[in-house]
Design goal:
single chain; alpha/beta; Purple Acid Phosphatase, chain A, domain 2; 9 helices; 11 strands
């Protein structure tokens, strides 16, 4: 018994904190969902913060589109930023629905119900459709109004990014399945059994998709979707070595405008 306790203490004392390679700083941004105002403020905050980094990488966790008012502007801003800085973007379930809705009427119907209407409005489309013929006509309007460069840009989004001891995905992973064997459908859509899983994964999973009032920091996962389209709060996780912090851009409800605040993550 005493020997077992000694071994447990030794393992705990020597357990390595998760980190990213030396000399790198990672910025992971949660679900933007058409909030171009919060996204623009976040970019400004990250550009300022990154001045002290020798090498940085920005990762957008997906769901850039839908629900919020300016999805088209978010896509355009993300593309411009990618030309100026190392920015990698994950595909979310809402990007999947958006792209599939161009060819599948059943997906288009689902897309409109869950935030796609706002996306089409941002491209200047009035999405009035209730019959098969109307949905077909709407798909023709979409093909005319949404630039091909936007479609190609979204199709180029990634499924998973691994840096150091962290794996970045949109929704989560299937527990006890190797990262290389994870399926895109799960990476974009999963909630359970991922969210309630208490055991460790091969990497700390950084994800969005599931909304929380504040970022959720657990030993096996970090969730940073703070419901920007509704809450007015967009959250980014900053990783450097074993150090971690949060940057938030948030609408001032009383004074107006957007404030930026940093928050250290308590271990």
């Amino acid at each position: 018994m005493i020997q077992s306790l000694r071994q447990l203490f030794t393992l705990s004392a020597h357990r390595r904190e998760p980190g990213v390679p030396s000399g790198r700083r990672i910025y992971a941004i949660g679900d933007i969902h058409g909030r171009d105002d919060l996204f623009a403020a976040m970019i400004e905050a990250i550009e300022e913060d990154a001045r002290s980094a020798s090498r940085s990488l920005v990762i957008l966790l997906g769901d850039l589109v839908d629900r919020g008012p300016d999805s088209a502007a978010v896509i355009a801003r993300a593309r411009r930023w990618q030309k100026q800085r190392a920015v990698r973007i994950l595909a979310g379930n809402h990007e999947e629905m958006f792209i599939e809705s161009f060819r599948r009427k059943d997906v288009l119907r689902h897309f409109l119900r869950f935030g796609g209407r706002e996306t089409l409005l941002s491209y200047g489309i009035q999405p009035r459709a209730r019959t098969k013929a109307e949905f077909a006509a709407l798909q023709e309007l979409m093909a005319q109004a949404v630039p091909q460069e936007d479609i190609d840009f979204i199709r180029g989004f990634e499924e998973m990014i691994v840096v150091g001891d962290y794996a970045f995905v949109h929704a989560g992973i299937v527990p006890d399945v190797a990262l290389k064997q994870q399926q895109p459908l799960d990476l974009r859509w999963i909630r359970e059994p991922f969210l309630s899983h208490k055991g460790s994964h091969s990497h700390v999973i950084v994800h969005g998709h599931t909304i929380y009032d504040r970022a959720v920091i657990l030993p096996n996962r970090i969730g940073i979707d703070t419901g920007a389209f509704d809450s007015g709060r967009l959250t980014a996780l900053v990783l450097e070595g074993t150090r971690r912090k949060l940057i938030e851009t948030k609408v001032r409800k009383k004074k107006g405008g957007i404030k930026v605040q940093e928050r250290a993550i308590e271990e």
